Amino acid sequence: MAHFDQPPIFWSFRRCPYAMRARLAIVTSGQKVQLREILLRDKPADFLAASPKGTVPVLKLGDGQVIDESRDIMFWALGQNDPENWLAVWQQNPASALAFLDRLDGAFKYDLDRYKYASRYDHDAGAVHRSSGAEFLAELDQDLQQTGALSGAQLGLLDFASLPFVRQFRIADPVWFDNQSWPHLHIWLGGFLDSAIFQLVMQKYPQWNADRQSIAFPPLL
Ligand SMILES: N[C@@H](CCC(=O)N[C@@H](CS)C(=O)NCC(=O)O)C(=O)O
């Protein structure tokens, strides 16, 4: 019988919002992985061999299966164990949860990148993408009004999939962001930024190299 005593290998990049959402799901589900912090300008050969498209996060399971989409890593982790019921929102209405995630990773992420890197693209376009992204955020503010969560009665998949991206949107211009009248969104994001799980997934790790001992994630406290 096959026996795998090494935890899955997880390639990550600390500041990547996709990697962040995967780390959040790994932590809440109590999975243990071997973290390999990489630099996007210096991708290791075994990372590219596992997933030639070269985006983080990537998870390689003990049986060799590779999961190289952040959402799929969230589903894998929560499929092992979901003590906080993050998947409840998905189970209740998969079509609407999927539509939300597609909009987040599609149009909102597109606006976010063009707003964030406005100088790289075009300044005027930056303003257009900020207001287009802001429309999405104003909707989130409305959605948060009732329970303070996007996933129903409590924070779940939709919250943790989106919070890292909303955080990035804020970082592009915190003063502007904090001046928007999105009271529920500000509380939601602030609660996340102050949370223990956010602190945990944002710990810093040295760049991985083959001579280094494997790094347990989440860290052994
Ligand atoms: N759809 C992918 C997107 C992941 C992604 O684009 N990650 C970025 C970093 S945040 C990346 O690795 N980009 C490759 C590069 O910059 O070379 C997912 O959800 O995992």
Short description:
By secondary structure, the chain is α+β, with helices and mostly antiparallel strands. The chain has helices at residues 17-29, 45-50, 70-80, 88-92, 94-116, 118-121, 123-144, 157-172, 174-178, 183-193, 196-201; strands at 9-12, 33-37, 58-60, 66-67, 215-217.
- What is the share of helical residues? 55-70%
Terminal Cα span: 33 Å
- Proportion of β residues? 5-15%
Kindly state the mean pLDDT as a whole number? 95
Question: What is the number of domains?
Answer: 2
Please give the radius of gyration in angstroms: 18 Å
Q: What's the number of helices?
A: 11
- Total count of strands: 5
Class based on secondary structure composition and strand pairing: alpha+beta
Bound molecule kinds, no repeats: glutathione
| Principal-axes shape call | globular
Q: What is the CATH class designation of the largest domain?
A: Mainly Alpha
Second CATH tier, the architecture of the largest domain: Up-down Bundle
Low-confidence blocks of residues: none
Strand order of the largest sheet: 4-3-1-2-5
SSE succession: EHEHEEHHHHHHHHHE
Let me know the largest β-sheet: 5 strands, mixed
The name of the CATH topology of the largest domain is Glutathione S-transferase Yfyf (Class Pi), Chain A, domain 2
Overview of the structural elements:
The chain is of the alpha+beta class. The chain has 2 domains: 9-83 and 203-217, Glutaredoxin, CATH 3.40.30.10; 88-198, Glutathione S-transferase Yfyf (Class Pi), Chain A, domain 2, CATH 1.20.1050. Helices cover 55% and strands 8% of the residues. It has helices at 17-29, 45-50, 70-80, 88-92, 94-116, 118-121, 123-144, 157-172, 174-178, 183-193, 196-201; strands spanning 9-12, 33-37, 58-60, 66-67, 215-217. The protein has a 5-stranded mixed beta sheet with strand order 4-3-1-2-5. Helix 7 (123-144) packs across helix 10 (183-193). The model has no long low-confidence stretch (mean pLDDT 95). The structure holds glutathione.
